[in-house]
């Protein structure tokens, strides 16, 4: 009997070695792995490094309820961003796309660039970064249970929301250059 238990133990040990033998990675470590893999394409980093240094204005976004979606609507009155049941009028499609990324993250307030020519490029970057972040979360949890995948995805979104919230939403009204003198100064 002793030989049988030793054989069973070595078989169990080799089975544990085949699966890695270590405890499965924690949700926090998987989130850190997603963040490290994203590097330059981590949405909060794009927000901190490319949006906040510009002249911006603060914009509120309604809270996203569970199982509610974020849609961009083209209506007779213009472009609207629908967050759950609430609608926000947007001046153009680029602004709606920009705000939709932050609405999906669940951010309450966000800085919007005052220069509308820069919003479209930033919306492109943020949408791509958002999708890449979700794909990386799927990649690091490949082959795991659905509950683990869901937990990691939620934790990644929560981390992005936290970092964007910490970065702040800027001022409600942008800073303007008060120097209105049009003529060159005489020496």
Description:
This protein is of the alpha+beta class and 187 residues long. The protein has one domain (25-167). 51% of the residues lie in helices and 14% in strands. The chain has helices at residues 2-18, 27-38, 43-51, 93-105, 119-140, 146-167, and strands at residues 56-60, 70-75, 78-83, 86-90, 109-113. A 3-stranded antiparallel β-sheet has the order 2-3-4, covered by helices on one side. A two-stranded antiparallel sheet has the order 1-5. Strand 3 (78-83) and strand 4 (86-90) form a beta hairpin. Helix 4 packs parallel to helix 5 (119-140). The longest helix has 22 residues, at 119-140. The chain is globular. The model is unreliable at 1-23 (pLDDT under 50).
**Morphology call:** globular
Q: Could you give the order of the helices and strands?
A: HHHEEEEHEHH
Strand content: 5-15%
Largest sheet: 3 strands, antiparallel
Mean pLDDT: 82
Q: Please indicate the count of domains.
A: 1
Secondary-structure-derived class: alpha+beta
Distance between the terminal alpha carbons, to the nearest Å?
Answer: 104 Å
Total DSSP E strands: 5
Helix content: 40-55%
Low-confidence runs = 1-23
- Radius of gyration, in angstroms, nearest whole number: 24 Å
**Helix count, DSSP H or I runs of 4 or more residues:** 6
The spatial strand order of the largest sheet comes to 2-3-4
